[in-house]
Design goal:
By secondary structure, this protein is mainly alpha-helical. Helices cover 44% and strands 4% of the residues. The protein has a four-stranded parallel β-sheet with strand order 2-1-3-4. The chain is globular.
Length: 465
């Protein structure tokens, strides 16, 4: 007589039915996991923090002799040949609670209302509380922005652009596709206190940060310690993409797609600025210069700027800043692609006013990379050799100090020896950092190399093709 709890196979009427009951039992487990994650999403209005997908497909059942999906047996059951979830599932997103601000909370009222009415108020019912909160804060942002403008008339050196002119301190632009290591390079360069940078708060509240940035220590509780999509630290004082400031100023950015991820994008031309009308282009230029002048007013240093869309905008950036310097970072596209997919799923899930379906996401990423680097190739010849330097992410990670020393020397950024201790100290704090390990199927690898093969060869990743 058997002792202990019965197994799933014990409920089979005949011995050969055990594997069928085992498969049914596993399907039930996966259904319960899907229900749990869907419930969590409804309650938290956020990305599920479990590595199990929100709507997982029931696992397929292999033959008794084993098949392509039966790498090991289920130790909890006597049945063999049943497929299991992947041994190395995609890492879970870090939680981003409901009370944490979305970037749209930094918009002024006019910009916010234009955004939602342009999309016909097609906001998912779960996101209406977020939309109401944004509307209230947008009105406050407009009031604070008006106060900063008035104070700027009285004390222009403190609350306006005054004597600070970004042309006097030519910026350094970090270029590269999303997930190519641009954030890591940005964090390394700003260890040099001779450089300034836009902070997360300045990009979040571009209309009034000169007036209100003193309050950021009080707002620390509203941000998580890590970014949702990776293990990079988050904080109001961390370097941030100026692209988010352009979004909140309403001057046009492809990032606006995050707010309505299921809607056709109307801002695609802001990626490379090539399809804009003269008025749109002038508005974009004016918005960028307006923001950078206020950042320079506060910091009075040459600015290091990082925004992946700038990779496709060198022509326009050179028109605005003829002596600007450009650092282009590249990474193996086979690593970039799955990481970018994860990034956009994370951002759409957190920032979206709709529940993202992510339809056509992979095709969009492939197309935007091609468009970005077509513009990059066309503009590259316009940049003087002394103002451009290219670095590989793999080299930066393997030997960061030597790579940065060469970069400083080639672009004449100053004496690297003066900043080496600060960079080394920062690297010591990051020694336990772990990148996400993402898998790509052979079919997906072929798809990537077919679409991006030209640039893979150009960037030195030809062996992957």
């Amino acid at each position: 007589m058997k002792k202990g709890l019965p197994t799933r196979g014990d409920f089979a009427l005949f011995p050969n039915q055990a594997k069928d009951y085992d498969a049914a039992y596993r399907r039930l487990n996966w259904s319960l996991l899907a229900f749990r994650n869907a419930s969590r999403h409804l309650l938290m209005s956020d990305l599920a923090t479990s590595p199990v997908p929100a709507n997982p497909s029931p696992p397929s059942t292999a033959t008794a002799g084993g098949g392509p999906h039966s790498s090991r047996s289920d130790s909890r059951a006597g049945a063999k040949g049943t497929s299991l979830p992947p041994a190395n599932p995609e890492p879970a997103f870090h939680p981003y609670p409901l009370w944490c601000p979305r970037f749209w909370h930094g918009m002024t009222l006019g910009v916010w209302l234009r955004l939602i009415f342009r999309h016909g108020l097609r906001i998912h019912w779960q996101r209406w509380p977020m939309a109401v909160a944004i509307t209230i804060l947008a009105a406050i942002n407009s009031l604070l922005g008006g106060m900063q403008w008035l104070l700027g008339l009285i004390w222009p050196r403190v609350f306006a652009d005054g004597a600070a002119d970004p042309h006097a301190h030519e910026p350094i632009f970090i270029l590269g596709h999303w997930r190519s290591g641009t954030t890591h390079l940005h964090e390394l360069l700003v260890q040099d206190k001779r450089f300034g940078y836009p902070t997360t708060y300045e990009c979040f509240a571009p209309a009034h940060f000169l007036l209100t940035e003193w309050a950021t220590p009080l707002l620390k509780i509203f941000l998580p310690k890590k970014r949702p999509m990776d293990n990079m630290a988050a904080g109001w004082d961390h370097p941030q993409e100026d692209e988010f400031a352009l979004c909140n100023l309403g001057v046009g950015s492809p990032y606006i797609q995050m707010a309505f991820p299921n809607e056709p994008s109307y801002a695609e031309d802001f990626l490379d600025l090539r399809g804009l009308t003269p008025a749109q282009l002038a508005g974009w230029k004016g918005g960028l210069v307006w923001f950078l002048r206020r950042v320079a007013t506060k910091q009075r240093k040459p600015l290091v700027l990082k925004s992946p869309p700038h990779t496709a905008r060198m022509r326009t950036l050179l028109e605005l800043f003829p002596r600007a310097k450009f650092i282009h970072i590249v990474r193996d596209p086979l690593a970039v692609f799955p990481s970018t997919v994860r990034l956009w799923k994370s951002l759409a899930g957190i920032q979206g006013l709709q529940i993202a379906r992510n339809e056509g996401l992979e095709e969009s990423i492939l197309a935007n990379f091609t468009r970005m680097y077509a513009a990059f190739d066309a503009d590259r010849t316009l940049v003087p050799a002394a103002q451009f330097y290219e670095v590989k992410y793999e080299d930066l990670v393997a030997n960061p100090l030597a790579t940065l020393e060469t970069l400083y020397r080639e672009l004449q950024l100053g004496d690297f020896a003066a900043v080496r201790p600060a960079v080394a100290a920062y690297l010591e704090t990051q020694k336990d950092y772990k990148t996400n390990q993402l898998q790509t199927s052979p079919e997906l690898r072929e798809k990537i190399t077919t679409a991006w093969g030209e640039w893979m060869k150009k960037f030195g990743y030809a062996s992957e093709c």
